[in-house]
């Protein structure tokens, strides 16, 4: 194994460019990255604060949206850390710091994607039971949020604890030179599967809603409150999307 080698050694092995001086492109990327990271931090802090202080938002869907904001807040921190450890600074990183940099990104992105899936499933349940808010208890929501972060941490930290290419250089990725191609393939497919499930869930929601709205338009027996609830649900799903 090549645990005592430098980051540059693995970049050379994967034939990925590793600069030793600041280019105009590097400065622009870092400046833009830090700006976006600050915006991400501030906007998601506003979302979390609004959910905490407003009692009208103390429902499962808003807790999940708050957790999504927390995941995106974490992503902002991860990207800010990346901006301070990129460009020519990449060559100066130890292997441990490089893995921390990548793990922060992978964990935050996975938490965000899995949380989006949880929100999709929650909205699916509320639409089909014709309720604006699900009857899920706060305890179950907290358990769900805990599971989301455990899943994200497992996927994000796996490379640091063995699923890397430090002992098999031929398996190194050209995109992330210390990562195994098999791990990146697994991570990409996992996120793609989650995305496809979300597409199926939301497609099912809108097909169901369209049929319901068509029936409502043809019959006058539907209570106005029923129609109002359906419209409110559609608005909520649309805003989330």
Automatic annotation (TrEMBL):
UniProt keywords, alphabetically: Cell membrane, Disulfide bond, Endosome, G-protein coupled receptor, Glycoprotein, Membrane, Receptor, Transducer, Transmembrane, Transmembrane helix
Signal peptide span: none
Topology of the protein relative to the lipid bilayer: Multi-pass membrane protein
GO molecular function terms listed in the Swiss-Prot or TrEMBL record: lysophosphatidic acid receptor activity
One cellular component (GO) term of this entry: plasma membrane
Subcellular location: Cell membrane; Cell surface; Endosome
Chain ranges passing through the membrane: 27-54, 61-84, 104-121, 141-163, 183-209
Domain G-protein coupled receptors family 1 profile, residue spans: 43-241
KW Transport (keyword) present: no
Family: Belongs to the G-protein coupled receptor 1 family.
Protein name from the UniProt record: Lysophosphatidic acid receptor 2
Organism: Tauraco erythrolophus
């Amino acid at each position: 194994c090549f645990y005592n080698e430098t980051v540059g050694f693995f970049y050379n092995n994967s034939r990925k460019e590793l600069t030793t001086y600041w280019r105009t492109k590097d400065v622009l990327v870092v400046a833009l990255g830090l700006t976006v990271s600050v915006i991400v931090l501030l906007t998601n802090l506003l979302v979390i604060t609004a959910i905490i202080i407003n009692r009208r938002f103390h429902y499962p869907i808003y807790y999940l949206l708050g957790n999504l904001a927390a995941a995106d807040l974490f992503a902002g921190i991860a990207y800010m850390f990346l901006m301070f450890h990129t460009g020519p600074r990449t060559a100066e990183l130890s292997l441990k710091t490089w893995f921390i940099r990548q793990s922060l990104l992978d964990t935050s992105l996975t938490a965000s994607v899995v949380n989006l899936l949880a929100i999709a499933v929650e909205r699916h349940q509320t639409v089909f039971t014709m309720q604006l808010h699900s009857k899920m208890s706060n305890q179950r929501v907290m358990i769900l949020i805990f599971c989301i972060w455990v899943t994200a941490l497992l996927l994000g930290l796996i490379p640091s604890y063995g699923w890397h290419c430090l002992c098999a250089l031929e398996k190194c990725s050209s995109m992330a030179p210390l990562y195994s191609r098999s791990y990146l393939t697994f991570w990409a497919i996992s996120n793609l599967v989650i995305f496809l499930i979300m597409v199926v869930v939301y497609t099912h929601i809108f097909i169901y809603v369209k049929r319901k709205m068509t029936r409502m338009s043809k019959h006058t027996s539907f209570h106005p409150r029923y129609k109002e609830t359906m419209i409110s649900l559609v608005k909520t799903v649309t805003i989330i999307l």
